[in-house]
Amino acid sequence: MKTRATQSLTKFVVLLLAVLAKTGADYRATSGEDHIRRPWRGSDGEEEQRVVEEAAGDEHDHHPWWDDENDHLKALMLWGSERVGRIPVNVDSFDAVGDGVADDTRVQGTIIAPEEPKQWDPKNPRAWLVFSKLTGIRIQGGGTIDGSGTKWWASSCKINKTNPCREAPTAFSIDSSSGVRIRDLTIQNAQQMHFTISRSDTIRVSGVRIRSPRDSPNTDGIHISDSTNIAIQNCRIGTGDDCISIVNGSSTIKMKNIDCGPGHGISIGSLGKDNTAATVTGVVLDTATLTETSNGLRIKTWQGGSGYVKSVRFENVKMNDVENPIIIDQFYCDSMTRCKNQTSAVKISQVMYKNISGTSRSPSAMKFACSDTVPCSNIVLNNINLETENGNAETFCNCAMGFDYGFVRPAADCLKNTACDGSRDYKQKETRKILHTEL
Ligand SMILES: *[C@@H]1O[C@H](CO)[C@@H](O)[C@H](O)[C@H]1NC(C)=O
Ligand SMILES: *[C@@H]1O[C@H](CO)[C@@H](O)[C@H](O)[C@H]1NC(C)=O
Ligand SMILES: *[C@@H]1O[C@H](CO)[C@@H](O)[C@H](O)[C@H]1NC(C)=O
Ligand SMILES: *[C@@H]1O[C@H](CO)[C@@H](O)[C@H](O)[C@H]1NC(C)=O
User: Fold this and answer.
1) Residue 284 is inside which H or E element, if any?
2) Distance from CA of residue 29 to its chain's centroid?
3) 50: which residues sit within 8 A by CB, 6+ positions away?
4) Is residue 14 within 8 Å of 142, Cβ to Cβ?
5) Which residue minimizes the CA distance to atom 4 of ligand 1?
6) What is the spatial distance between Cα 164 and Cα 125, in angstroms, rounded to a whole number?
7) 184 Cβ closer than 6 Å to some ligand 2 atom
8) Ligand 1 atom 1, closest CA
9) Domain that holds residue 392
10) Which H or E run contains 354?
């Protein structure tokens, strides 16, 4: 524990490629490796453990460690640099206390990425601000991280079809970390994804605002992979892709009070691409509003995958003019060419939808398009009220088994129909409209 804590903050290296801030501070970004101290050296391990456990706690955070009056924070403020180039920044350059107790990471003002994709280091195509191998820290401050994505979007193969598809940076990444708390930040106009959490556990995100135009390509809001015990709450996300996406290797993900729109909704997946195995378990979304999104609550898997999605609950969700409010799509295909039919699939079971209401833009208010060979099971609906303007909302099922109780509109009797046939029409229709554009 101790070793880990000691190492963690020294890895707190932010890769900044040109930084502009409006804070007016006279800090200057330096790359003085020789000044690196060992922050958090003083931690006795016990303190560290406590912090991590606290971070794992529920919605309330009254532990002094999290409280503002206990802050001994120094602002992480970076003064404008005209230079474009990588500036590795260590927290010590900003007078980090690093005693294992003081919490001293703040983002204030605005950190702006260079807008010209050509200026990006081709060796690091996927990353802008990266926080890696951290234990027990908090990042907050009310500031803004702006990816200046406009030119990246325009050159995306999804927008300019003559361009080859290539990678673009994620604005803000937490990787291989534990006990991290992100609070009160705005992340906007990311080059591609806004905020990724990977290979991490016990991460709490609250009061984060994410915004990009609805036509910005692949700009997922928060993307979670290979991570466990993640809590996301009180976040407002509007993007050109999924507001939140949860992919392989993720478990115990709790989302609460999420405002999503525009965007593609809240998604588990995509999973199982290129015949890969994937597992996602224990996902809860409680209290959300989705406005003018193309999907609402979605689970998407590619044909040919394996593994499973299990134990998912979506509850207390309001839909405002959402194209596909509730959707399971096991025929997901986001490629330029048609996806071929395959028999294996990522198994989907134990998915509950409870107290979901509002308006659907398409008649397809609930769609459970499950694999013929690996049907969905234990799909449960309770207290659903979805309608279109014309009153023609319907439920579609293909090999989806489960039940509904309480008030459920549109009726979902097809869930009780366990026969897995009659799907051919559906699949043909599906394969014809595969050219939707997202990762
Ligand atoms: C698409 O990209 C090509 C090559 O990068 C460029 O020449 C062309 O002007 C772009 N088209 C549009 C509409 O921006
Ligand atoms: C899925 O996650 C598991 C567990 O983290 C990992 O072992 C596996 O390699 C991942 N699969 C893919 C395709 O990334
Ligand atoms: C149902 O969800 C709505 C939010 O869409 C919430 O306001 C309401 O309190 C929930 N009802 C129950 C019984 O939990
Ligand atoms: C996939 O299966 C459907 C029937 O289930 C069939 O009509 C279609 O041609 C198949 N597509 C391919 C690419 O084999």
Assistant:
1) strand 277-291
2) 29
3) 65
4) no
5) 163
6) 15
7) no
8) 160
9) 103-416
10) strand 347-360
The residues, ordered by sequence, that sit 6+ positions from 160 with a Cβ below 8 Å of its Cβ are 154
Q: Retrieve residue 422's tokens.
A: 């009659």
At 291, is the secondary structure helix, strand, or coil?
Answer: strand
Residue 235 lies in a domain: yes
Cα–Cα dist 262/322, whole Å: 10
Those residues with Cβ within 8 angstroms of residue 432's Cβ, 6 or more apart along the chain or in another chain: none
- Ligand minimally distant from the alpha carbon of residue 407: 3
The pLDDT profile of the chain, 439 residues, written as one tens digit per residue, is 333 333 333 233 333 333 333 222 222 222 222 222 222 222 333 322 222 222 233 333 333 222 332 232 222 323 233 344 455 566 566 666 666 666 667 888 889 999 999 988 888 889 999 999 999 989 999 999 999 999 999 999 999 999 998 899 999 999 999 999 999 999 999 999 999 999 999 999 999 999 999 999 999 999 999 999 999 999 999 999 999 999 999 999 999 999 999 999 999 999 999 999 999 999 999 999 999 999 999 999 999 999 999 999 999 999 999 999 999 999 999 887 899 999 999 999 999 999 999 999 999 999 999 999 999 999 999 999 999 999 999 999 999 999 999 999 999 999 987 667 544 444 444 443 433 334 4
Tell me, yes or no, whether 74 lies in a domain.
no
For a mutational test of ligand 2's pocket, the pick from 176, 201, 225, 226, i.e. the residue with the most ligand atoms closer than 8 A to its C-beta, is 226
Q: Which residues contact 21 (CB under 8 A, 6 or more apart)?
A: 77, 78, 79, 80, 108, 109, 110, 111, 112
Amino acid at site 434? I
Could you give the 3-state DSSP secondary structure of residue 52? helix
d(CA 436, CA 218): 12
Place of tokens 């802050």: 71
Atom of ligand 2 nearest to the CA of 307: 1
Residue carrying structure tokens 């039919």: 341
Q: Which amino acid residue places its CA nearest to atom 8 of ligand 3?
A: 316
Question: What's the domain count of the chain?
Answer: 1
Residues 6+ apart with CB under 8 A from 33: 88, 90
Residue 86 maps to a domain: no
> Ligand 4 centre and the CA of 102: distance in Å?
61
**Is residue 56 within 8 Å of residue 49, measured between CB atoms?**
no
| Residue 142 in domain | yes
118 CB contacts (<8 Å, ≥6 apart)?
Answer: none
Give residue 153 CA to ligand 1 midpoint distance, Å: 12
| CATH of residue 374 | 2.160.20.10
Please report, for the chain, how many H helices and E strands are present, in that order.
4, 24
